[in-house]
Amino acid sequence: MTTQTIDRWRNGSSPWGHTWQKNMMWWFIVTDGILFAGFLCGYAYARQGSEAWPATDVFFSVILLTVMTFVLITSSATMACAVAASRAGDRLATRKFMRYTLAGGLGFLLMQAYEWWSVIGAGLRPGVNPNGDTLFGAYFFLVTGFHGTHVLLGLIVILVAYLRRRNEAAPLNPDGIELVGLYWHFVDLVWVVIFGCFYLI
Amino acid sequence: MNDIAASPYLTYWKAWGALLVLTLLMALASSPFIIVLGIAAKATIILAWFMHLKEERLDFVLYVVVSLVFFSWLLYYLTIPDARAM
What we know:
By secondary structure, chain A is mostly helical.
């Protein structure tokens, strides 16, 4: 009986045909995704029930946001390339693509800082909105701030993974890079939803 | 583990191109329906190609996709009709 159980779960190391580390990362991604879904549904509720919700062009520049989206998607693509390069055992290419990803993520964060700077300059605060419903400010800073924090944490994690692979003697560990990549793609995925739901609709 | 070793980068840059085109289309669209379709298409590309769900077992893919879609749907439809009634 016991042998059968151990055999089915491959000794606890491979529950879904992949490593348990990857499984835990996906659990985190699914639950974190549901957390973002909760924020966005709260935002949708406030917006549907409001009679003075500001139009999307009052505070936002669609051009800046499209550029931000381009940059984040590109950094996601370079991260996917970093994972592929590490699988192929190419340390130089892995680190090169990780540098591109870091640059993209940093660029995104700087543009978001600029966006916050300009909406704060226009008088928007979490509880103050000169152009309509105050809840708009609350949800704007909550949702974009929570996502921006994810980007910042992702940058730190990628930087640590990058530095740990700086010399030839250190193991390349492609599985670790894949986990970092999964998190980074998730941050990109959430931004795609926020870009659509918050800035375009 | 994976069978994309021959030309791994090309697949990602194709996905990247598709994502950029969809982003532009969404930015130019005015209909909420088109924008939601664009979000769904982009999410599918990111999950399937960048996050390699395409290469995972079907039961695992269903676990990820069904939980995300079901809980988002639940949150939305338990709250939004109330806001509309206000």
